[in-house]
Write a structure and sequence with these properties.
Helices cover about 35% and strands about 20% of the residues. It is built from 5 helices and 4 strands; from the N terminus they run αααβαββαβ. The protein has helices at about 10-20, 25-30, 35-50, 80-95, 115-125, and strands at about 70-75, 95-100, 110-115, 135-140. The protein starts with 7 loop residues before the first helix and ends in a 14-residue tail after the last strand. It is α+β, with helices and mostly antiparallel strands. A hairpin with a 6-residue loop joins β2 (about 95-100) and β3 (about 110-115).
């Protein structure tokens, strides 16, 4: 997406929706100081331009029995186009994988995974990750505590 010009009202709308994506149009209009029709038109334009990419519910992973988050640095054994593409797509489809990034540097992918402790992580490694072709090695880091979590940048 190309950079989009956002005015102050657009940024107020984005900030309000970032805080609560379930706001009604009337409540959103009240919060940003505009009438409902212009707010509705602006939200639709922001969606069409790809500034707003989706609406979602955040679910506490602990409520699903997945109390731990692990970051996994993954290095592939080779870098041919087919393997790189296939590996990334297959990793992204795994249910416990929350995010996957192709990265530069010492490893090829960085994955954020939700697991149920070290036993759950071992199951993930043996039954999911290590079954993917092309894995040369992995390095894992368990998080101790989340100090900040945002799903999108601050629009202000």
């Amino acid at each position: 997406m190309a950079e989009t010009s956002l005015d102050a009202a657009d940024r107020r709308i984005l900030a309000a929706l970032r805080a609560d994506g379930r706001l009604s149009n009337a409540r959103l209009a009240e919060l940003v100081g505009l009438s409902p029709t212009p707010v509705w038109n602006r939200v639709r334009r922001l969606e069409e331009q790809g500034v707003i990419t989706r609406y979602t519910a955040e679910i506490d992973q602990k409520a699903l029995g997945l109390a731990d988050t692990v970051f996994i640095e993954i290095t592939l054994d080779r870098h041919d186009l087919g393997l790189v593409r296939d590996f990334g797509e297959r990793l992204a489809r795994m249910k416990d994988v929350l995010e996957v990034f192709m990265v530069s540097g010492d490893y090829d992918y960085l994955a954020r995974v939700a697991v149920d402790g070290t036993a759950g992580y071992e199951v993930f490694l043996r039954e999911s990750l290590y079954r993917l072709p092309g894995v040369r090695n992995c390095r894992s880091v368990f998080t101790l505590r989340t100090l900040k979590h945002e799903s999108s940048p601050d629009p202000s």
